[in-house]
Amino acid sequence: MRGLLVLPVLFLAFVDARSQGPAVSQPRKQGIIELLLDYLEVRYPGHDLNGDLLYISIQRQALFHVRERRLMNEYPVSTASRGPGSAMNSFQTPTGLHRIVEKHGDAVPPLGILRDRTFTGTLADLDFAGVDKDWITSRILWLDGLEPGVNNGSGVDSRERHIYIHGTANERSVGTPSSMGCVRMLNPDVIRLYDQIPVGALVVILDN
After folding, report:
1. Whose CA is closest to 104, among 126, 65, 70, 136?
2. What is the domain count for the chain?
3. Which single residue of 22, 68, 141, 177 could bond 165 by disulfide (Cβ 3.0 to 4.6 Å)?
């Protein structure tokens, strides 16, 4: 019964926190993270939640970095303009439990354009001509789905879909749903996160 109650309470807590805007206190947000962890322990038994954990809220367009069950940082992000979904070629952001399977971009300069996870040698112009080219910049955290039939396996596999957390040249889009399925971040933010998060860290994406 406890597990059934946690998610509605978590949802209401995030709605209430969102209504308070950016001034919500750190203790208040830590309380929300504790509710989240309670839910994850029930929903995903057997997974170690005591290390680094990234929680991405589609509704809030925010990424929360949790370490040893404490909130470390909150970052604005951009998920898919087409909303949540896991189908191949849907251009939607998959939900559920993932892990970081690979990291790419060591020593790539800020705004360096990556193609096939390799630095092209070219730097992007921020918001080039006001056109969103969906460039992948600075760093890549590649996600691997851990839920068969949801984000892992034929037709819904996050890794095969090349779902990344990555930098973007269209920084004006961050904070609104505008990507083609990946999770976009500001370039300084993704570089900082990249340096702090190890391969194997859990990532949970919820449309709450």
Report:
1. 136
2. 1
3. 141
CATH of the domain at 161: 2.40.440
Domain assignment present for residue 192? The answer is: yes
pTM here is 0.87
* Helix, strand or coil, per DSSP, at residue 35: helix
CA distance 197 to 54: 9
**Considering the domain boundaries, does residue 11 fall inside one?**
no
| Residue located via tokens 């950016």 | 22
Structural domain range at position 136 = 78-200
Question: Model confidence over 53-91: pLDDT tens digits?
Answer: 999 999 999 999 999 999 999 999 999 999 999 999 999
Instruction: State CA 54 to chain mean position distance.
Output: 7
Residue 171 tokens, joined: 């920084």
Q: Which of 106, 137, 141 is nearest to 124 (CA)?
A: 137
